[in-house]
Every structure is written in structure tokens, then in C-alpha cells.
UniProtKB/TrEMBL annotation:
Pfam families membership: LGT
Protein topology in the membrane: Multi-pass membrane protein
Name of the featured protein: Phosphatidylglycerol--prolipoprotein diacylglyceryl transferase
Entries under NCBIfam families matching the protein: lgt
PROSITE patterns reported for this sequence: LGT
Source organism: Rhizobium mayense
GO molecular-function terms, A-Z: phosphatidylglycerol-prolipoprotein diacylglyceryl transferase activity
The EC number(s) this enzyme carries: 2.5.1.145
Gene from which this protein is expressed: lgt
């Protein structure tokens, strides 16, 4: 229950214009800049990993900077197409079937991480086969840099005032009701006047900063890239547990709500659970392969 003391402690939502700047009739959104920043910084970090032969099996990276330069376009298409198609299939199918033009209206729902992961995986498999690159090593290098993109993506969600959390009375709770959000919802504040968890920032911190730090330690100090598949497995498990944890604070998508008649189970949890099994399989497989090679 909210008291006057609670309300006084609530942080105001910083109403940042979702449009970063305009070039004539062209509007550049923070959301688009977040994707660009995540991909470019990830590409830069991946090149640094490739340059350090000591991190890799046999002290030589199985790919070159030129491979990464070519791959950046592939991964961009995988992220964007997979993310959008995934969102439609997992979260927004009925509205899109009723109004197909909604499929290209990215401001109606946006992107799905799980769809983007599938799209990126397909792009990696195709690129690795075409360029004769060890597939698991490519998986690992993308996994090592993926938290960078997750961090910027969640910050963009926060700027857009979307994917907010459940109602809360914690001192850092925010009321996600800004003029541009109201305008996008036919003059009605979709979150009411209830203060909510800034769950986008929770995700930016856990999925972005914490997960990147764990993978940095694994690649730089534990030399996990020498066992292809290990970094990928840890990333998948780390993201799954991070997402499941934050889902307890995040408001479910309104068109789906909670699943199976519960007041806690969400689609994000359901999609993340299989990732734990996949990640464990990848780690176990990597250890078995490494053991056979050492025998």
C-alpha cells in the first residue's frame, strides 16, 4: 500500500525523447542507435578476442578479422529479422493475423530476444559452413560479446518507457507515464499512476554488465575459448537465469498476461527454461570433446 512517504520517495521517470535527433524528414531513434552501438562495440571486442591467439586452442584463433568484418552484416540481419519474427510468433500473433501491416510496425511490441537468438544462430551456422569456420568457436565469440548488445537494448527500452516492471513501493520505483508514452496509447497512461520496478535497468545490469563480466573472466582468465562451446553454454544458462529472475519484477506483456492461470508465470520464463538444458548440454559436450582431444 502506497503512503505519502512512499510517493515522496518515488523517482520521476526521466522523460527522454525516444527520437535522438532528426536529419530532415528522417528521425533517428535511440532504439535504433542501441542496436547499432551493440553491434559495433561487439564487433570491436570480437576483433580483440581474435587478435589474442593465446585465448584459443593451439594458440591460434580459428577465424580472422576479415571473417568478422564479413559476419557483421549476417549477424545484423539475424538479430533484426529473428527478433521481429520471434516477437510476432511468441507475443503478438493474433493482432498481426488480424492486421498484417502490424508486422512491420516495430513500435508495436518491438523485438524478442529469444527470436533474435534463433535468428543469430541460423546466421552463424550458415556463415560458419560457408567460410569453413568451426561453428562452436563462432558461437563462443558471439556469446562473449552478446551482453554488450543486451545492455544497450535494455537501456533503449528504459528510454522508450516500455517493458516496465510490476507495481512496487521500493524507493527507486518509477511511474512510467510520460507524454510520448501517453500519446502512443491514445491519450491514456498505460501504467496508470502506480510506481513500478524499473525492470529494464535490472536487465541491463544483470544480462549486460554482470553476464559480460562473467564471460570476460571465462575467456581472459579461465581460457574457456580453448574448449569450444563452453562460453556459449555459460552465456545461454546465464541469460536464462537472469531473465527468469527479472521476470518476477517485470510486468508481463498485456496481450498475454500471466500463463496457466497463475500470477507469476510469464512467456519470458517459459521461453528461457529450455535454454538452461541447451546450455548444460553445450558445456558437457565441450568437456567431452576436449577430453577426447587430450587423450
Amino acid at each position: 500500500m502506497l503512503t505519502s512517504a512512499n510517493l515522496a520517495a518515488i523517482l520521476p521517470f526521466p522523460d527522454i525523447d525516444p527520437i535522438a535527433f532528426s536529419l530532415g524528414p528522417l528521425s533517428i531513434h535511440w532504439y535504433g542507435l542501441a542496436y547499432v552501438a551493440g553491434i559495433l562495440l561487439g564487433w570491436f571486442y570480437a576483433r580483440r578476442l581474435v587478435d589474442n591467439g593465446k585465448l584459443w586452442l593451439n594458440d591460434a584463433a580459428p577465424m580472422t578479422r576479415a571473417h568478422l568484418d564479413d559476419f557483421i552484416l549476417w549477424v545484423a540481419f539475424g538479430i533484426v529479422l529473428g527478433g521481429r519474427i520471434g516477437y510476432i510468433l511468441f507475443y503478438d500473433l493474433d493482432p498481426v493475423l488480424a492486421n498484417p501491416i502490424r508486422a512491420i510496425q516495430v513500435w508495436n511490441g518491438g523485438m524478442s530476444f529469444h527470436g533474435g537468438l534463433i535468428g543469430t544462430t541460423i546466421a552463424m551456422i550458415l556463415f560458419a559452413n560457408r567460410n569453413k569456420i568451426p561453428m562452436w568457436s563462432l558461437f563462443d565469440i558471439v556469446a562473449a560479446v552478446a551482453p554488450i548488445g543486451l545492455f544497450f537494448g535494455r537501456i533503449a527500452n528504459f528510454i522508450n518507457g516500455e517493458l516496465w516492471g510490476r507495481t512496487a513501493d521500493v524507493p527507486w520505483a518509477m511511474v512510467f507515464c510520460s507524454p510520448h508514452v501517453i500519446a502512443a496509447h491514445e491519450g491514456v497512461c498505460p501504467a496508470g499512476l502506480d510506481p513500478r520496478h524499473p525492470s529494464q535497468l535490472y536487465e541491463a545490469g544483470i544480462e549486460g554488465i554482470v553476464l559480460f563480466s562473467v564471460l570476460f573472466i571465462l575467456t581472459r582468465w579461465a581460457l574457456a575459448l580453448k574448449k569450444p562451446g563452453t562460453v556459449s553454454g555459460v552465456f545461454v544458462i546465464g541469460y536464462a537465469f537472469s531473465r527468469i529472475f527479472v521476470e518476477f519484477f517485470r510486468q508481463p506483456d498485456e496481450q498475454l498476461g500471466y500463463l496457466l492461470g497463475t500470477n507469476w508465470l510469464t512467456m519470458g520464463m517459459v521461453l528461457s527454461l529450455p535454454m538452461v538444458a541447451v546450455g548444460l548440454w553445450a558445456i558437457i559436450r565441450a568437456r567431452h570433446v576436449a577430453a577426447r582431444q587430450a587423450a
